[in-house]
Give the backbone structure.
Amino acid sequence: MSGTGQTNNKPGAAGPDGKVEKRRKVIEIPPRERMKIPRHLPYEQDPAERVTNFCEVSDGFNLEKAFSEANRCLECNDPVCMKACPVNVDIPAFIQLLYEGDYEGAIRKIRESNYLPAICGRVCPQENLCENSCIVGKKLEPLAIGKMERFLADFEARNGTFTPPPIAESKGQKVAVVGSGPGGLTVAAELAQMGYEVTIFEALHEAGGVLKYGIPEFRLPKQIVDEEVNRVKALGVTIQTNVIIGRTLTIDELLGEMGYGAVYIGTGAGSPRFLNIPGENLSGVYSASELLTRVNLMKAYKFPEFDTPLKIGKKVVVLGGGDVAMDAARTSRRIGPEKTLLLYRRSREEMPARLEEVHHAEEEGIEFHFLTSPVAIHGDETGWVRAIECEKMRLGEPDEKGRRRPIPIEGSNFTIETDSVVVAIGQSPNPIVQQTTPGLDTTKWGTIVVDESGATSRPGIFAGGDISRGGATVIQAVADGKSASRSIDAYLSKLREEQSGSEEPAQSRSAGNRQATE
Amino acid sequence: MYRIIQTETLAPTISKLVIEAPLVARKRKAGNFVIVRATPTGERIPLTIVDSDPEEGTIVIIVQAIGKTTHIISGLRAGDHFEDVVGPLGEPTPVSDFGTVVCIGGGVGVAVIYPIAKALKAAGNRVISIIGSRTRDLVILEDEMAAVSDELLVTTDDGSYGTKGFVTDALQKIIDGQGNPDAVYAIGPLPMMRAVANVTRGPEIRTWVSLNPIMMDGTGMCGACRVTVGDELKFACVDGPEFDAHLVNFDELIARNRTYSDPEKESFEAWKNSTETTDCRHQ
């Protein structure tokens, strides 16, 4: 990947001479025959079996399935799948390389646009993005693009064929990345390839951010995350764990005495929200973040081999309808209660969670209670949860987002006996960096204000992902990281030019000018 | 890897460790804490930074062996290391010249009150300190506390050392004899802090306590450390750990802190049984 911005040499796009280059076609069977191949399904652990373990639910595709799936591609001249991808992975090109048996070439092709294919192949909401726009899907089931991506990443890992992409000549400038989640890893990978010296600072003791503490092992094995992190390190990126920017070091120290030319903030939205209902602080009431961090990062599911405990009783009630609520419910289910319930105050149609996750949760025996909203949590004499009091809702007029507003039905209160409650109603941005960085503009929700390029109100400081969006997806964090990398490169290139310009007339270096070159 | 430079047994079950953590040492202020993880399979626990030396790049922690993790930490020796040390965390203690301040430490809480007493003394306050423990053997940092206090009272529950009684008895005596102090800082077991708050509530003496709820990340991310202060929900790790004692809902926190007692007991028993024939510090 070239350093400054992307050169527009992709097929289908207008070349320098203004001509539109035609995409090559490689799949030999006629389109009509291709349409006869049904979409392949991955092998999945049986629901009854998988609720007893934390192993990955889906095994993905083997070579045979991946190859056959590639045969289904229509090789469209104007690939809309690629446009629907937030990072514009050249999907037809990697499918063709897969078809031709050039697996290394195929994964390299993906990595040109997305450095985290093993992760995104698993957790991207493809059904709303690339697969949703796939032309085959207009009449039939769309191509299983995510599963092919995952296959290529896993195939490469299994065969140990990863080689780091070429790295541009050193630019002699340092960039600090705050947070090692998908956004931070992407920024680091992009800038390292451009020749910058990148250090990621991570607050926790392991790299990966939400990929480590948030997304469960059974959806995204932590070994996969570690391998992806290692591929970022293979580009020369340094990762310092146990450093909290805003506490251990500040952004101003990074930009000042520590000599970083630019900083990218990708600290995510990790601060749990609560409902503010009576009884929410009883023992046995957890935030989804606490539950997931205990299980995912601290491996409470292996207690007492690992020291971090988790106490889930006979029944768990999860509150919320997003992906995190599904993760919390499915994680709780595996800890072994007799019953796991999920309460959501709107109806099934309004649930923000991915369909696949809802489907998986239902398969695993999680009971959904729609149009149900908690009003109070009741405890026993020891201060432990005993029951949750709810009221029934009906749907009113749509709100500003177009989702129908839930309205309480008077006199409909009822209680559900339970000994644990998990609050999964959303997370807020982590506030530490904002509070300790003067001049950094934030919104009333606490998110960092950025422009389209990811630049904040302060020169040299960039941000993206959940910390600026308030709650998005892994792939959106990757996309933000990519565009911020381009603007960081532009910013630092300008600094370099200014520097070389000012150094030429043999001026003595002033003390105030020390930060740029270390 | 965070190397241990020196260890010292202050009392049976109470150990002091000097740890290499240069970045933390440089930034640390009185009232800050660290989160540590002793082993690769260990849990993250918060510990107050008792002292720090920015030149040497070291911090001091004091730990009482109660469960598995604290026993493992107590078994560490110079040359061993912590898997992880992260900080400094929490808001520093609000230190200013109030006038006369009473600093109360109960049990291993003396380790937490010590840096605060030191900072308050340095800020020009007249510092009266009360340190209390169950029994003589468990009295720690007496000399250190004496060095930063204008007056030091020691109480033991069983009367084996100092004055027999609770720290609240000594506090009441000070109030009765010398009038209301300008501020009180109390750190120790939750029932002790609750008792101190009850003594100072009537006479409206400004009182701070340092809370020790269950914590994991220490950066406001898990919400395990949430406490009710007045009518607000606070995260002790980022909003605290020190709060206005008269506004803290102690009963709720006492119940919350018992959340994991059963599994912790189970874990400790399993660990004890597995270490009976071996040196625990190599586990």
